[in-house]
């Protein structure tokens, strides 16, 4: 524990200093990271906007070619995610994040220069590799700055950028598509080219805008650095400090049942998320074939905006109540009702209302599940590996999501809606219920002293190195 720079001050004075420190961290860390994720989500899902603007016809892609180009992204994305947090820790955030952003921005530009399916599929493969490090990396990074009771709302604000991206993406795509014919390029090609160039610029700027971990961050004074590390240690965390990578941390994550429990929950949320975000314009257009591509893109904006608001609210509520499992369970019922309505009614008005409920039931569960997993895993590298596995497995289910909305099933898309409903009911809802019960059971065992033997004969430092296996570590349920 570093020395206390506020020793001798009253509790009220310490609370005021802590409030100002937290506000300083929020202003330095959150806005730019949200902007980066907005760009990331925009770049991986804008292919849906490009599709309804004529991309598949111009490239001679069949419906199967289109779904294959979606699927290949998730394969490379999921395969690379488990190792990205190790690279983030070794290379430092201010180096790692700009590198991957510049790379995926270049890949985005090449997507606008493709002439056939082979070129698009290749570009999507490399886009998945380059983007793999951002989402798990930033969640891991933020978990090394904030207390467990503070992390949820920050993760929710960060992830709400995905919902904003869906909203903003529809507007942006509708505007850029008007460039059709300029430079001999179709409107859909300009969507990829301009958004890719913007990503490269943001990546270069990130070298100065992304800060390193608390033990190296340049914007912290020595006193503030001590305060950040002390408040994390008081929260039973050591994630802000330097730690050398050992394979034992990797295997500790692999052998921990929580890694796989949260992976199951997250696959339920992520599988639904990608199906929704990749095909929402197509679903809306299917409600009324008379809708133009621009109208379908614009009508996708309000559901995303509503989802962004609820995502932040659920993040705040889960932090206040420390009941992340119950927040997942309550929220997913909204989505279950929405997709049940999509299956049960062909009325365009009912379907559009159902799309809102679907968005509200999916998006908040993504950030809440990540926060829940992060809260319950301690140790610098173990947490990083666990988040990589959880998010990687969830994204691998994007392969399923990419193939369930087939053109031949238009306009009702029964198979697609049914698969999403199954994901939400079995994996997201069922997984959340089972995990909540198991975590409560483990907390009772620790409170009753049934895990005290794990600390017997160990020094204080050795006990701390047990991470979330410490007998006094209480899980967030």
TrEMBL record:
Transmembrane segments: 67-88, 95-118, 124-143, 155-176, 188-210, 260-281, 301-318, 325-344, 350-373, 385-405, 417-439
InterPro entries: MFS (IPR011701), MFS_dom (IPR020846), MFS_trans_sf (IPR036259)
Domain of life: Eukaryota
GO cellular component, one term: membrane
Residues in Major facilitator superfamily (MFS) profile domain copies: 29-443
Keywords: Membrane, Transmembrane, Transmembrane helix, Transport
PANTHER family: PERMEASE-RELATED, TRANSPORTER, PUTATIVE (AFU_ORTHOLOGUE AFUA_1G01812)-RELATED
Official protein name in the record: MFS nicotinic acid transporter-like protein Tna1
